[in-house]
Design a protein that fits this description.
Length: 418
Amino acid sequence: MKLLRSGSSAARERLDALTDRRNAGYERAMPVARRIVDSVRRGGDAALLRHRTKLDGISSQVPLRVSEDEMRAAWEAGSAEVRAALKTAAKNIRAFAERQRPRDWDMRPAPGVMTGQRVKPLDAVGCYVPSGRYPLPSTLLMTAIPAQVAGVPRIAAVSPRPARETLAAAHLLGVTEFYRVGGAQAVAALAYGTESLPRVDKIVGPGNAYVTAAKKLVAFDCGIDMLAGPTEIVVTSEAGDAVAIAADLIAQAEHDPDAVAILLTSNAELAKAVAIEVRQRVRSNKIAAEAIARNGTVVITKTPEEAREMTNRIAPEHLTIDSEADLAWVRNAGSVFVGHLSAQPLGDYVSGPNHTLPTSGLARLRGGLSVMDFVKLITVQQYSAEGIKRLGPAGIVLAKAEGLMGHAEAIRARGIDG
């Protein structure tokens, strides 16, 4: 890992480069993704299967839709240990999502006036589950369960080469609509629909640069959760455990050669200890070693406050801090892990909070995937004769101030003077 001191031009350039480069991947993929999306939008199943054969290496003879029997067989073929772990993860994810779900409510801002909101689920969502470098059954749990808790009636999963564990997870959750397709072509099919794959209202889940580029392209026609880049981890620590910190940095770095792994600390001894520990531990992990060589960085700050300010400026996807008291200064982060025992991979699998998180600084604007991504809030209002007498005159005044006389007349038509 590069060991730098804050204030140096090298540290500034390094952090700026790590921030600026995070969107470059999917921007480079945009021209190819656009051709694929346009092709599937116009050509339907024929184009979808053609791209699947070319890009996913799946014969056109292989059915697009995975049968429920295949998902059931995957569940039955799994080990008891894996089935138990999937059940534990699903239980905790569901419980957390239940606590997140917004509720209907009403209020009475004036006598005779009722306002409120009604929470309604989306009609259909698509869950993208990557299956390239690693099988990710956990991503199906993290995307489908909040949708189920929200009450979404139709959930369609897509994955180019779904692992047995992913199909087993689908069976566990009762997800019956699963398509063997990936990449930009899957995103296009979900967004616009084909003869065999009906369109959805929103697409969620991470993917490679082509998937992310395609999500950006369809975002005005179909909802998306976020544009996710390579995994990021920041550890901001003054008294952490060097072994635990190094292990977490490597764990997140092994997701992708472009993953970002950063330690921010004013404790020079801790910084050096972590750098040494990472160097020793990363040798047996090829992908993590590549990511650490590219983007692994330790910054020794002048003060703890400077490390905290840098953390919020980076707005990392995953953040580890020393203690619960540190939560007070955290403003921008996707998911926060408190203390040296809170291993970040537990959040990837079994804790309950969602692991689909904002990257590339988007934690300044939003949190991770949640039930809120699968519902819409419909506002309602009702007036009685007393209510319109009380608020109608003010409405007329404002309508006249804006020059919208039809608005004013619509209020007067209810017997209100003004």
